[in-house]
Specification:
Keywords: Elongation factor, Protein biosynthesis. Residues 508-520 have a biased composition (Basic and acidic residues). It contains 29 helices and no strands. The protein is mainly α. The chain has a domain at 10-120. The longest helix has 26 residues, at 335-360. The N and C termini lie far apart (103 Å). The relative contact order is 0.05.
Length: 545
């Protein structure tokens, strides 16, 4: 039996007794030969997949699969069967069903085989993708609530290319491969989740995924996604954090080029413009344009570049409504936004210039000129009722905070208590604001500044919004040493977690309490009671001189 089933090499028969002398079992020898042959077979399968005519090579692989599939559950043969399936562009349906029905086989097969299973099984693909999407949202939220508060390293600091190297984007890119059907499924998942949760991070993932496939030059998908060139151009603007004139023309060309009957593409374009990184770039560019217009004595309505930025902001901010209603039309810009609100913002920039010039003039009997403290009533109304105005207004406030302009900040702060859809209490705005406030660190020692910021703004929302509670505690953890002790104590009490507070708030409050405990001076030592014993006379030692 051994002779019949052994390795039929005449020269081997005389060599085998040497192994017996060395105490090597025949099993070990045959196992090593088997492993070696399997490696050679795997190499040969990979080679067959690349050589000869397409029909011939796949015919060979299909024959091999037919012969070997019955042994697929044998651990030693399984890698060969899996390798054959991996190289087949279309595995027979029957085999795919058998793999799908067996958990261990499904787990063991290559992603190339899984793609063939997924494309006809949306529910199974959804089960694979869902944990990755949850992980992605969690990662974004962790960055927004990070305890490292800095104006230099914030949520928007990483470049688009760096963000695309993230684990989730890379895994999804690999799962999709060149399969347009799977790509469409992922986009459908993202649209559905965006509609269900209003979470804008799904819009970021939509753009990142497309650009990740662009980086890999997967033309099969990029050429069929109508948003590809628009996203590519916008990606370059996000990298520079500014929309220059040349790219503005390109983006406008894409928007104007949406043909009749293809309006549905506006839904996808609006989702890409709703990405917080896109909104950030458009809003920063808008503020920069407004400052340039002040210097040029030009009104906003006379600047086509500014009007295009507003058009894109409006399209991005209207993404949810458009996808929800399935009415694919660009939202109309309100004339008052351009004729009243933006000139009002420009007047604030002028107030700063005027005040700075007045400070430099030699002061005569008239005394120092006070900084304007009132806000025009329409400004509050715009922030409460117009989403685009609110977004631009918030970015203007971030801009003046970054410039350490305390006067302008305190003047506009009361307008933030009531804003459109509570945008001033959104995580992205509070993340950026807390970072910029570190530049005004020395002002936290002043009672007036702290009262306006904490009592007048933050604490108005803390009881009803846990995220605001978390952001205030993050800020105090970073700047507690700058705040006056009495104010700090009252803030610590005001920010105590309630029964409804989540673990994150409790943890942050504990960290703050610990830090404040360490800052407290140690209690004075009680005076020692004098000893009744007579002191011994000191004996001089040779060392004391």
């Amino acid at each position: 039996w051994q002779t019949e089933n052994g390795v039929l090499l005449p020269s081997l028969q005389s060599a085998l007794p040497f192994l017996d002398l060395h105490g090597t079992p025949r099993l070990e020898f045959h196992q090593s030969v088997f492993d070696e042959l399997r490696e050679k077979l795997l190499e040969r399968v990979s080679a067959i997949a690349l050589e000869g005519k397409v029909e011939e090579r796949y015919k060979k692989l299909e024959d091999l699969l037919e012969k070997s599939f019955s042994l697929v559950k044998m651990p030693s043969i399984q890698p060969v069967v899996m390798c054959v399936m991996k190289h087949l562009p279309k595995v027979p349906e029957k085999k795919l069903k058998l793999v799908m029905a067996d958990k261990d086989l499904y787990k063991a097969c290559a992603v190339e085989v899984k793609r063939q299973i997924w494309q006809d099984n949306q529910a199974l693909f959804g089960d694979e993708v869902s944990p990755l999407l949850k992980q992605y949202i969690l990662e974004k939220e962790n960055i927004l609530f990070s305890n490292d508060i800095s104006v230099l390293h914030n949520f928007f600091s990483p470049s688009p290319k760096t963000r695309r190297q993230g684990e989730v984007v890379q895994k999804l890119t690999q799962m999709i491969g060149k399969n347009v059907k799977l790509y469409d499924m992922v986009l459908q998942f993202l649209r559905t989740l965006f509609l269900r949760t209003r979470n804008v991070h799904y819009c970021t993932l939509r753009a990142e995924l497309l650009m990740s496939l662009h980086d890999l030059e997967i033309s099969e998908i990029c050429n069929v996604d109508p948003c590809h060139k628009f996203t590519w151009c916008l990606d370059a603007c996000i990298r520079e954090k500014f929309v220059d004139n040349k790219r503005a023309r390109e983006l406008q060309g894409f928007l104007d080029g949406v043909k009749k009957g293809q309006e549905q593409v506006l839904g996808d374009l609006s989702m890409i413009l709703c990405d917080p990184f896109a909104i950030n770039t458009l809003a920063l560019s808008t503020i920069r344009h407004l400052q340039d217009l002040v210097g040029q004595d030009t009104l906003p309505r006379e600047s086509p570049d500014l009007l295009l930025l507003l058009r894109m902001l409006s399209l991005g901010q209207g993404a949810w409504d458009m996808i929800d209603s399935q009415v694919f039309k660009e939202p109309k810009l309100e004339a008052e936004l351009i004729t009243r609100f933006l000139p009002m913002l420009m007047s604030f920039v002028l107030d700063d210039h005027t005040f700075n010039v007045d400070q430099k003039l030699p002061s005569e009997d008239k005394g120092p000129v006070p900084y304007p403290s009132t806000i025009p009533e329409p400004f509050n109304k715009f922030l409460q009722e117009n989403r685009i105005a609110c977004e631009i207004g918030l970015y203007y406030i971030l801009h003046i905070t970054k410039q350490r302009n305390k006067n302008a900040f305190l003047r506009l702060l009361p307008a933030l208590v009531e804003t459109f859809s509570d945008l001033a209490f959104s995580d992205i705005f509070l993340h950026l604001l807390t970072g910029n406030l570190t530049l005004l660190g020395d002002e936290f020692a002043l009672e007036e500044f702290c009262t306006s910021l904490f009592d007048g703004f933050f604490l108005t929302a803390c009881p009803r919004k846990e995220n605001v509670h978390r952001h205030v505690l993050r800020l105090l953890l970073h700047l507690h040493h700058k705040v006056a002790p009495a104010k700090l104590e009252s803030l610590q009490k005001a920010l105590e977690p309630t029964k409804q507070s989540g673990e994150a708030v409790k943890e942050l409050h504990n960290q703050l309490s610990e830090k404040l405990e360490l800052r407290k001076p140690s209690p004075a030592q009680p005076p020692e009671t004098p000893s009744m014993e007579l002191p011994l006379p000191a004996v001089p030692t040779p060392a004391s001189r």
